[in-house]
User: Which sequence fits this backbone?
């Protein structure tokens, strides 16, 4: 997308501050969020990007009468510094111990007894609660306002009306999935279960959509009670055939906006409502609390179910990997030729070319995330992506990092290769060797079925530690089945919580991607997707195993 | 202590149930807890042990009109099975996914709308809240009762009146510690800080006591406001000299029981009260909530401060290690001779002998935990301890595991050695090698300053995984300075949370103790205490480093 100028950003902040007086707000919080707490946002909900000019995928902007600050994590510090220049927005380095939390910063930046505004559809209940707790010490409250966004954002894109499509691959049916979920609800004593997360809804309904770039999901809420299942969705994007087939499987459609008014009355009054406060917006949770529902705040059962792929899904994913691998081979072969021929090459040109090779497959839908093609110093920013107008040339020598993936009709891929073009310094070779040793260490270790996913992180990290370095990201993340390229709840990360939902069992699809980044010089990352296979009484995540035996013994 | 018979246990449960009617209780929860949530309890508070006959250090007993169940973790399943036999108390294997939580079990075991009783001084606020949340779904409430314990427990030991002593080692003074804590309170916006945990209070006041076996602490609460510091303690155990010296440093003494009535009024009414809900009893937190204090629920600052030892403390701890090492050398030398001579040896005799050698040092106070001397199958129970009347003989051959430690006036020790007596099977040698490789892997790895302590766990575990095995405990725990042998917040465990308070910095004192347990055959564990030293830009936790350079470069 086009970048906003600092002048535009200043004008937008001024427009936002104008709205403060009428609402008696002392500040406004603009998180990266939609009502589904999606990781990647539909453009309709990208208010934080619009207001700040910062285009990274994570960050929260806070604006007071006189100050503005943006919290984002280490992946984006360099990019944010560049994009915030001249806007007057201060960068808050999230994750550094000296950085105050949002609530703490607000507490000393706005008057006691004042009111801070936010669109509470775009903040998770857990995050809002943490901010509220800190603000309460100075009697500052957090108040919902859903109208500021349209007032300030004149050019706001309309909500997507892209059609929803059926995604049947011959695996578990909607009815089977509903029945498993209701079984879990009975065991938890829940009368209702609210699912806000879009990939869970797509998985439950065996439908896919096109409301968010790179992720085949559609905006909806799903409420399941013991007897009913309601899909809150804009009727303009779901065909009559699908509505009928959903109804046959016991899922009724309702208008999207009715989630705020009609959902709660469907749950028995003295019943317990199951929702995950980390993955449900604050507005809905406060509505449920006001209606005096007792809330079961626990991870929704669909997340574990969809994270562990069945045998059929794993076989299809293997197919997707083959399509993807073939495209990569063609691409690298083309690249070798192009380098030999000595034509003008750039990061952007490579990303276009890679898209071309992938798009030749009839199974290809779109990229699963924005392709990263990064040369030398650009590769040191783990989330750098080239743009048409901002792309480094490929000269005779250098380190080339390509991290890319795609949505195929049979699965989602994600792969990173780092290659040396021409001669590279011996320090780069040493760094590459450490990362490769980390990757191989994880690929060749044995571990017990049921370890917490976070326990595997150190295995790939140790060889990098041994040469005195580290990397700021996790070693791996879950990947969906023709769904999100980042799929929870398991992740191979030092920060992954030791919860039952993060245990590693056969069927999980995760990446193995250690890295090493030297600011100003180069970045290295080596990534494959892997899935646990049995190895005697233990499990292993080897890079390769016979495709017809996915999930079987090594 | 003497074990209770199953008949005694049944009579006690009957006495407890008799109290239900007058109080309209449908059940009673007896956790392992005192008002300070101590890991090891003063005998005065050991109600759970009294009621159930189960002597393990962790577990919660729940008794309804017709049923009783005891939750305890894998360390104690074998012991609990043995000790609960014939009592009618069902063992609930805590940590297994099929085991219901206490609240869930209660929900289906007592009538809707009923009341469950507990002494809410002995449950942490966090744990009580979790149980309450689940019970609330069936409108069951949790109610405090402090009188049941005395009614049911006729032989209840009196509270300890052992005298408190000064512990000055020439390091930071009380005034310095108070000033650091008040600095943190200002930064957090706290008007008051309540400390319930006994080792933090001993550390803050530079005092030690003798109220709990193996841990030189004394029962007290400490409330710190911006201007005052109040030590709630039984005046009979604290000398006038100490009271005077405390007062000079700005710490006033108040009667222990006044914590429930006089503490809160000392905190400014519109102020925020800092306490750690995981480490503060539910009764106090509900009193604070009723008084409408806003609560800062965050780990108390003293925990991180005392976990990271200063240079002087580390030097003294090295001295304690030397006293302890010398005693162990003498013990193992004696053992070699005794084995050669072929006299009758038993686990109990060895533990007595080890005590003898340690007690020869004038710096020795007491063991820092009950000595584990375990032969063969007994060693497969990680927390087995011999008793005078229940102790295996040392025959010609076998695996001998000794895990022991002591309180010296200059530090706390904890060390485990596993030795082969005579010929042992080659499988035992293979197991020992895997554990030793794990220990050495951690001792020789490099890692960045500031990693989460849990990240180090996998390093020692991998060699054990490689032979298809695992161990159920963490790889290491923090250790106090003449304080608790298990000291938080850092621990080298898969379950250690990824919180700032768990980061590893120089000064931390932790154990490195991987293990491997084969039920019915043998157990192996190799443990040293280690502290991070600098190694270039990284840290390392080697087994040995020059004592005069503790905390310095490797």
Assistant:
């Amino acid at each position: 997308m086009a970048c906003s100028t600092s002048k535009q950003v200043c004008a937008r902040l001024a427009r936002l501050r104008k709205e403060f007086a009428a609402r008696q707000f002392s500040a406004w919080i603009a998180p990266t969020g939609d009502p589904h707490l999606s990781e990647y946002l539909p453009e309709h909900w990208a208010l934080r990007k619009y207001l700040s000019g910062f285009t990274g995928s994570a960050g929260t902007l806070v604006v007071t009468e006189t100050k503005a600050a943006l919290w984002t994590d280490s992946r984006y510090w360099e990019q944010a510094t560049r994009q915030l220049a001249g806007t007057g927005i201060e960068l808050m380095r999230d994750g550094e111990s000296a950085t105050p939390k949002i609530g703490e910063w607000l507490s000393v930046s706005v008057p006691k007894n004042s009111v801070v505004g936010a669109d509470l559809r775009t903040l998770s209940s857990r995050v809002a609660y943490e901010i509220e707790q800190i603000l309460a010490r100075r009697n500052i409250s957090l108040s919902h306002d859903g109208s500021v966004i349209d007032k300030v954002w004149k050019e706001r894109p309309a909500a997507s009306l892209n059609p929803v499509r059926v995604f049947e691959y011959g695996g578990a049916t909607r009815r089977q999935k509903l029945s498993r979920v209701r079984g879990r609800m009975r065991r938890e004593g829940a009368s209702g279960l609210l699912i806000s997360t879009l990939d869970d809804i797509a998985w439950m309904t065996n439908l896919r959509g096109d409301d968010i770039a790179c992720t085949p999901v559609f905006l909806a809420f799903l409420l399941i009670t013991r007897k009913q299942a309601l899909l809150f969705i804009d009727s303009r994007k779901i065909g009559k055939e699908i509505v009928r087939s959903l109804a046959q499987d016991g899922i009724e459609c309702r208008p999207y906006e009715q989630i705020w008014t009609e959902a709660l009355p469907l749950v028995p009054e003295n019943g317990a409502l199951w929702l995950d406060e980390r993955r449900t917006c604050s507005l809905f949770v406060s509505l449920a609390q006001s209606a005096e529902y007792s809330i079961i705040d626990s991870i929704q059962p669909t997340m574990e179910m969809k994270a562990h792929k069945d045998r059929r899904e794993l076989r299809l994913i293997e197919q997707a990997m083959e399509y993807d691998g073939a495209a990569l081979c063609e691409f690298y072969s083309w690249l070798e030729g192009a380098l030999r021929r000595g034509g003008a090459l750039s990061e952007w040109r490579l990303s276009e070319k890679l898209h071309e090779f992938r798009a030749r497959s009839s199974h290809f839908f779109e990229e699963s995330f924005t392709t990263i093609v990064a040369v030398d110093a650009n590769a040191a920013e783990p989330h750098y992506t080239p743009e048409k107008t901002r792309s480094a040339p490929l000269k005779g020598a250098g380190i080339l990092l390509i991290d890319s993936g795609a949505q195929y009709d049979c699965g989602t891929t994600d792969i990173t290769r780092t290659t040396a073009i021409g001669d590279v310094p011996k320090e780069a070779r040493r760094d590459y060797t450490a990362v490769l040793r980390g990757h191989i260490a994880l690929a060749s270790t044995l571990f017990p079925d049921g370890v917490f996913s976070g326990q595997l992180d150190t295995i790939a990290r140790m060889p990098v530690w041994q040469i005195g370095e580290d990397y700021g990201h996790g070693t791996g993340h879950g990947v969906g089945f023709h769904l999100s390229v980042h799929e929870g709840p398991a992740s191979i990360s030092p920060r992954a919580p030791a919860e039952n939902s993060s245990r590693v069992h056969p069927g999980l699809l995760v990446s193995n991607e250690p890295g090493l980044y030297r600011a100003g010089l180069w970045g290295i990352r080596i990534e494959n997707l892997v899935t646990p296979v049995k190895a005697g009484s233990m499990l292993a995540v080897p890079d390769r195993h016979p495709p017809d035996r996915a999930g079987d013994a090594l």
Remarks:
- Chain A has a mean pLDDT of 94.
